[in-house]
Write a structure and sequence with these properties.
Helix 4 (159-165) packs antiparallel against helix 5. The chain has helices at residues 2-9, 15-30, 82-94, 159-165, 169-189; strands at residues 42-51, 57-63, 68-70, 72-75, 100-101, 108-114, 117-119, 122-124, 127-137, 151-158. It is built from five helices and ten strands, in the order H-H-E-E-E-E-H-E-E-E-E-E-E-H-H. Helices cover 34% and strands 30% of the residues. By secondary structure, the protein is an alpha+beta fold. The strands form two sheets. Strands 1, 2, 3, 4, 5, 6, 9 and 10 form an eight-stranded mixed sheet that branches. Strands 7-8 form a two-stranded antiparallel sheet.
């Protein structure tokens, strides 16, 4: 499993990632169905932090279920190529035709809690998303399109503005702020991890 090896090689950025990396690896070792949402306890997902060429803006969607501006992403649904999942979800949720990974390596990882909710008239119980994030780039002048099933808005935000736009405090403090901090470090060093 290529993604397992990538996660093992990944150097955690902070304490949250150290703990979450071990949780994800342990779960993958013991649950062969971790790439399927039929596993109602926890399953693999992939997200993208989509930035413009200048690295000054991030593209976010207004997520219907969470009622907040958020990153793009979705379920693996059996696909162990999480980079491909992140790219596909990015295009579906934003209407972008071209989303380029800035690296094929993992940008971030996190264990995310998901409260029980209704989706397409069906109840989805509370569970965990074992999430892998990739850093992507897109042309901010490309036309954007809402994905009616999942979001009601697609918009570019200045990096700090994106933090203020999200109404999910844990995501802002633990995830989005981290992603922006890592981006600034990359910009300063001119290289990706």
């Amino acid at each position: 499993m290529k993604i397992f090896d990538q996660i093992e090689r990944y150097h955690p950025y902070n304490e949250q990632e150290e703990h979450d990396k071990e949780v994800i690896l342990d779960y993958l070792r013991h649950h062969k169905d971790a790439f399927f949402r039929s596993n109602q306890i926890a399953h693999m997902t992939a997200s993208a932090w989509i930035v413009n060429a200048a690295r000054s803006k991030v593209l976010m969607v207004y997520h219907r279920i969470y009622d907040s501006w958020s990153w793009t992403g979705g379920h693996a649904d059996g696909d162990e190529d999480l980079l491909a999942v992140a790219r596909r979800e990015s295009r579906e949720e934003t209407g972008l035709k071209e989303v380029r990974p800035l690296s094929e390596e993992i940008y971030s990882l996190e264990v995310l809690t998901v409260d029980g909710h209704e989706k397409r008239g069906q109840y989805v119980p509370s569970h965990l998303h074992l999430n892998i994030t990739y850093l992507m780039e897109a042309d901010e002048d490309e036309e954007l399109r809402i994905c009616e099933d999942e979001n009601s808005g697609v918009k570019w935000f200045e990096l700090d503005e994106a933090l203020r736009a999200s109404t999910e405090p844990w995501f802002v403090e633990r995830i989005y702020k981290k992603l922006n901090d890592k981006l600034k470090r990359i910009d300063n060093s001119k290289e990706l991890q």
